[in-house]
Amino acid sequence: MATGSGKGPWIVAGAVVVAGIIVAIALVIVLSGGSGPEPSPSGSPTQTQSPSPSPSPSKSPRPKPTKSPRPSPSPSPSPVVNNALLVRQSVERAANKDRPGQVKHVGHVDFYRNRQGCSSGDSASANVRYTEADPQKTAVWISCRSGSRWIVTQGPIYGE
Fold first, then answer.
1. What is the pTM of this model?
2. 9: three-class secondary structure by DSSP
3. Do residues 120 and 148 make contact, with C-beta atoms less than 8 angstroms apart?
4. Measured in Å, how far apart are the chain's first and last C-alpha atoms?
């Protein structure tokens, strides 16, 4: 029985190590949970922990933001020109003059370069859908760029 008596201290030491690991894991879970104590299943009131006077070591206090001097206001950048929107607006005005109260939708804007009919060389076409089919229900309108504006030069062109 001399061999059996030598294992006793090792078993006790192993049990102490396992118990220490379980306690360490439990402490990590309790300290990192942050949601407070969970209600007990038996329904009995539980004691709440009072907050410790020192902050937990895992959280560092936030530094106060420092106010830097404000730079002088610079002029705002010019707004981006949405050419498709400008073409739609000019075509819609022209279509409403041509067939008042019948314009349903202005869309499908296409742009073209180096068009010989336009002095700037930039042109666009837009489709107009009408509510009534007298003579057709859709038409194409052609616009040319004149500076920053779009001017309708042809239309309505009715398709097949």
1. 0.49
2. helix
3. no
4. 108
